[in-house]
Amino acid sequence: MNQHKYYPALVSAFAAAVLTTIPGIKSFACCLLVPAASVLALYLDQKFNKSEVNISSNKAMITGIITGILIALFSSSLEIFITFILKSNELTQTLPELEVLLSQMELGTVSEDIINMLRNISAEINESGFSIQFTFFLFTSNIITDAIFGFLGGLLGMAILNKQNNNKDL
Fold first, then answer.
1. DSSP letters of 94-156?
2. Averages of pLDDT over each 10 residues, the chain, 170 residues
């Protein structure tokens, strides 16, 4: 068994996670960075193992999902660390706009409950720099979305790299 098989996913996931801390790039993390990191992980895996064999769909999907989960773990950890240091984040800064938006949706008591929960999270972050609810929601949402987009990126990477391998044979 190859003990280094997760290195390409680790390297590309950490690089993508660091890029997600940049404010302008953060908006495109799930739909561009995560699939690109999965493609990069497959590419690095081929180069690392000096392989020109076509990538199987199983390997592409697993590599994509692992890369997505690692990105979620790294990026969430970085965001929590930055929030802890600054005692502020996007949630605390945009809370007034969120309250207006939720009240305009006319959801009744549901919007009031959501607003109260967001106020509590924001207060915890402002006081101590940490909120267990924020951490839970951040990790959960990032793991789900990044795993899905990593999966898709793995399939995209398989298609791209297999096409390149097939063109080399001609």
1. HHHHHHHHHHHTT-THHHHHHHHHHHHHHHHHHHHS--HHHHHHHHHHHHHHHHHHHHHHHHH
2. 77 95 84 95 92 91 97 96 94 92 86 92 96 97 96 96 81
